[in-house]
Amino acid sequence: WDTIPWVSAVPIHSRLHILQQECSCDLSNGSVHGSFWQGCDDRDFISFDLGSGSFMAADSAAQITKRLWESDGITVPELKHELGHTCVEVLQKRVRHGREALEHKDSTIIPFPKTPNVHVSGKVEHKILTLSCHAYGFYPRAIGISWMKGDEIWDQEMEWARITPNSNGTFHTWARIEARPEEREQYRCRVEHPGMPEPGIFSW
């Protein structure tokens, strides 16, 4: 069984919302089973089952997305390929690597959860301050990073990196924002992770 989740923070109406997606697949007796799930702020939104080739909407808003994806001629074929081929290839690769690690007795056990290390940095070029907030060494993969100006989420010009695995099984990512150099003290990085009892606030 293989589950490939990712989480991103999306600013909507000046508030930070967490968009979650998860692709899952399993290969047993030569048959492939897969599903896709999307949620927002820990609430179900829409899901797709590879076997039936159909969507299930959680509410009226998701019904609009369901009708759009069913009729665009693109989303369903892409999901079928992702779940029936790409996900299975990743699953087989992970199983193979897992066997190799066990054979060499070199597998790494990651404590659950592992709190992220956070480093905030900045540099000024052409009178523009670029602030970077790096989170690394965390597990599980789900994490939320946002920049705050004062006490408000300030993500209009924010850039997120993909959440990337490290060789030891943990993950790292970063978020950047551009600001005026004279306003640097107003900006702080906010990090949320299952390994943290409450969101952390970090300054440069």
Strand content: over 45%
Helix content: 10-25%
Low-confidence stretches: 1-14
The fourth-level CATH homologous superfamily of the largest domain is: MHC class I-like antigen recognition-like
Whole-number mean pLDDT: 82
Head-to-tail CA distance between termini: 41 Å
- Beta strand count: 14
The secondary-structure element order is EEEEEHHEEEEEEEEE
Look up the CATH topology of the largest domain. Answer: Murine Class I Major Histocompatibility Complex, H2-DB, Chain A, domain 1
Oligomeric state as shown: single chain
- Structural category is alpha+beta
How many strands, what sense, and barrel or not for the largest sheet? 5 strands, antiparallel
Spatial strand sequence of the major β-sheet: 1-2-3-4-5
Tags for this entry?
single chain, about 200 residues, Murine Class I Major Histocompatibility Complex, H2-DB, Chain A, domain 1, Immunoglobulin-like, 2 domains, five-stranded antiparallel β-sheet, about 45% strand, disordered N terminus
